Amino acid sequence: ASRQFRHGEASEVKVNTPAGTVVFGEHHPLVVIAGPCSVENEEMIIETAQRVKASGAKFLRGGAYKPRTSPYSFQGHGESALELLAKAREATGLGIITEVMDAADLEIIAEFADIIQVGARNMQNFSLLKKVGAQGKPVFLKRGMAATIEDWLMAAEYILAAGNSNVILCERGIRTFDRQYTRNTLDLSAIPVLRDLTHLPIAIDPSHGTGWSNYVPSMSMAAIAAGCDSLMIEVHPNPKKALSDGPQSLTPQGFEQLMQELAVIGKAV
Ligand code: PEP
Ligand code: MN
């Protein structure tokens, strides 16, 4: 993962979507990934996909297997949610990104996803990292909530060492001492630090990073100003009714407005 490994050059992660190849990397336009925390039903995922596509997103996110803190919270619809993501992909041309929690589901997820997400809670699940490294789909590796930069880069190294060079790093907030006003502390300093240390593309998730939709626009703009290559943003057609992460989800209108603001400030979207 070291930048020196590529003699100082950034790497690119090229992903094929039905609408064409999308490239993540330092010298490429910002890639926006948007969608609900969880795939809840057909209507909501298709509507969200159409709306975020119209606003300029290139990938649809949506959880089928959800890593919830409480076992009594909604756990995701599993395989049937993957089928719904496939319908949304076909309807819109968006690429699909969804999380793998268990290596037993990896094969089926890889059939449906254009990018496979490893979540914060599994960042140091080394056996899972080896397995996502041994399959061919690009990997979106979120930072563990108490992981150092070194821990995170070593987690990426597991995937690279297993033979998969298509890894995108995503900062999603770390645990600090204030949980009252923000869910996590979004570590934007990770962007320039990673830029020095690694050739891999860098994404920011301001939704999990702050926990509140009203803080997502300013953190998105700050992330772009700091040089990120990609944003992952949670969007739900009715955040108040969301089965997970409603408070941090933008409405489709809020997302559209944000995309217009982002286009003004930097890397073309
Ligand atoms: C998610 O993207 O919905 C998610 C669970 O993220 P994280 O692993 O960053 O908490
Ligand atoms: Mn979420």
TrEMBL record:
EC number: 2.5.1.54
UniProt GO BP: aromatic amino acid family biosynthetic process
Keyword terms: Transferase
Domain DAHP synthetase I/KDSA: 19-263
Keyword hit for Transferase: yes
UniProt keyword Transferase, yes or no: yes
Domain of life the protein comes from: Bacteria
GO MF term set: 3-deoxy-7-phosphoheptulonate synthase activity; aldehyde-lyase activity
Protein name, UniProt field: 3-deoxy-7-phosphoheptulonate synthase
Gene source species: Mastigocoleus testarum BC008
Coverage span on the entire protein: 73 to 341 of 351
